[in-house]
């Protein structure tokens, strides 16, 4: 039951933002008009009348269990890591479903992570970690903003997502940033090639970058 107190709100956030860019957040099931809260909190990814809403069945639940294990294993800023992972589950799933990263949610992720990291630094986690996190966030943010200008697959959402990703990577060291850059390109590249070979994508298909950037962050922190 307590588990659903975490997964329910995450599922609700995903379902309400499962709309095309520019459209307002959804409050009801698109098929039958049932209010999404609290009906969408179940693990089956369906409204009470069986229509698909939000994240696929059990996806959020599995990701939350993995996240709890990661936070328990982490020797570092656990509150910031838990908050970051919760936001990553929501944003990664939304990006995978409707290929967008809502700016207000990315802003909450960046602001909340920065505040919790600052609290950890103040409580003895180390100011040098916080400074490096800030530098990495600013650096990756600017770099991805420049990358998205020529419209080569990176969108503005990816550029803003680079800020909370930079915060997480920078805290753990510059080696994490380098490992992340390598892993993110490998993951996205391998998926792109696999989709081309399977005939499920053409060269023009835009792959959502958010999930790869987020998964690569978790792997890079784990490795470094
Ligand atoms: Zn429905």
From TrEMBL:
Keywords: Hydrolase, Membrane, Methyltransferase, Transferase, Transmembrane, Transmembrane helix
Regions that span the bilayer: 55-75, 105-124, 130-149, 156-174, 180-199
GO biological process: methylation
Documented EC number(s): 2.1.1.-, 3.4.23.43
One GO MF term attached to the UniProt entry: methyltransferase activity
Name of the molecule in the record: Leader peptidase (Prepilin peptidase)/N-methyltransferase
Protein species of origin: Allocatelliglobosispora scoriae
Phylogenetic classification of the source organism: Bacteria, Bacillati, Actinomycetota, Actinomycetes, Micromonosporales
């Amino acid at each position: 039951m307590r588990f659903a107190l975490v997964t329910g709100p995450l599922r609700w956030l995903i379902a309400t933002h499962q709309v095309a860019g520019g459209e307002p957040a959804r409050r009801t099931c698109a098929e039958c008009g049932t209010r999404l809260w609290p009906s969408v909190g179940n693990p089956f990814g369906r409204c009470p009348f069986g229509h698909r809403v939000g994240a696929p069945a059990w996806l959020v639940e599995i990701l939350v269990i993995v996240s709890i294990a990661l936070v328990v294993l982490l020797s570092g800023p656990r509150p910031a890591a838990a908050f970051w992972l919760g936001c990553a589950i929501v944003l990664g799933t939304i990006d995978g479903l409707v290929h967008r990263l809502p700016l207000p949610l990315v802003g909450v992720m960046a602001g909340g992570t920065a505040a919790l990291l600052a609290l950890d630094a103040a409580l003895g986690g180390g100011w040098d970690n916080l400074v490096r996190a800030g530098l990495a966030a600013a650096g990756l943010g600017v770099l991805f903003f420049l990358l998205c200008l020529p419209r080569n697959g990176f969108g503005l959402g990816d550029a803003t997502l680079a800020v909370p990703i930079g915060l997480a990577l920078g805290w753990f060291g510059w080696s994490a940033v380098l490992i992340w850059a390598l892993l993110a390109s490998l993951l996205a590249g391998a998926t792109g090639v696999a989709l081309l070979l399977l005939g499920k994508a053409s060269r023009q298909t835009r792959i959502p970058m958010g999930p790869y950037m987020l998964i690569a962050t978790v792997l890079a922190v784990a490795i470094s």
